[in-house]
Amino acid sequence: MARRSSLSTIKRMVGVLPEQTSVIAGSSSSTLHGSRGKATLPDLPYDYSALNPVIIPEIMELHHKKHHQTYVTNLNSFLEQLAEAEHAGDVNKMIALQSAIKFNGGGHLNHSMFWEMLCPPGSSEPPQGKLLDMIERDFGSLDTMISKFNGKTAAVQGSGWGWLGYNTESDKLVVATTANQDPLQATTGLIPLLGIDVWEHAYYLQYKNVRPDYLKEIWKVVNWNNVADRLKNASS
Amino acid sequence: MTFHHDKHHQAYVNNLNDALKPYPWLQGLSLEALNAMVGTGMLPEEIESAVRNNGGGHWNHSFFWRIMMEPTNATDGPSGELESAIVDTFGSLEGLKEEFNAKASTRFGSGWAWLIKTPTGELKVTSTPNQDNPLMPRSVVGEVGNPLLALDVWEHAYYLDYQNKRVDYINNWWNLVNWAEAERIFLESYMPYSQ
Prior knowledge:
- By secondary structure, chain A is mainly alpha-helical.
- In chain A, 51% of the residues lie in helices and 10% in strands.
- Chain A has helices spanning 2-13, 57-87, 91-96, 98-117, 129-139, 142-154, 184-188, 204-207, 211-217, 224-235, and strands spanning 160-167, 172-179, 191-197.
- By secondary structure, chain B is mainly α.
- Classes of the chains: A mainly alpha, B mainly alpha.
- Chain A binds chain B through residues 62, 66-67, 70, 99, 103, 157-160, 179-181, 199-201, 204-205, 208-209, and chain B through 3, 7-8, 11, 49, 53, 108-111, 129-131, 154-156, 159-160, 163-164.
């Protein structure tokens, strides 16, 4: 049951449209041979200018076309090397490749989710139903959750992400952060519902060093429907 | 440069001062001493992380400004003993640049690349994450030594000019290196704190 939902979560994570078959073989299994094809850069669900003025088009284009693309390209290259090493029975090499796969695979997973977790400011509807109930239950109110999220995320040292995650064991929502491109689920077990990129490339051209301003504005483009969908999948 | 100095570096200074405010006995210590205390248990637990990030950040950026100069006045490379040491260790200046550039471009996330003189007098190229530096203990950063060159590869250091093209930033940075200063440090440096 857990394995099935993790595969479908991963397909969602990489922004795969139903007809695309390219998925990175990122299930809980450690074997990556017989992978289902290469990772591909998912299209954004909107134009580069769609999140203006919260995130300017220049950032969206660089972030998607350059940064995310680089993770995809590198991930494919390292997965290929991993498959060769596995084929050759070179366990040492397989181990040596793990950090590169974590960086680039994490980068690909995280960004693929990110694009879906955001939407144009006009389409961002506040959370409701079960999602809102859980936010209010676990944080007191939406504002309190946002405050906690922003506090922790602004404090991330260097590069990383802020997350609203779901703890399947305790059935609770949690605010968490990860360093670099560490994927939330793989490193903490929490299911990512909402992630905000706080690598400087995500905001620097517009907000410069003032990460807290970026974090204040970003909530205007959060796609709560997507967050609710992820919660639904995670808690079913 | 303006943002890097007036905003980022200033923030490290402000945050470090805030962290040390309740601890007058720490305020008199040099920045080098503070950095050397990271991860040793000698700092109060509640400010350990603040000192590591902001004490590190303050030292690193101060050093960064020190070893750069206007490109029009900069020399192409080192001379004297530093040059000999570089040739001995890396084969040539190009050899050093290759290794340094590789370390700088493969540092994932935020961090720094360094040319250091180790406690045994050898030259080494290393890199550290976030605001860690080779003045911190071996248990924290692995490779320790006195920095001769440093390159900030946090995105804020290059994003406005180079965007995602970190490699271009690294290649161009060599035009700013103050080799005279690096030589001076090389000849004078010693490790004041046992590692």
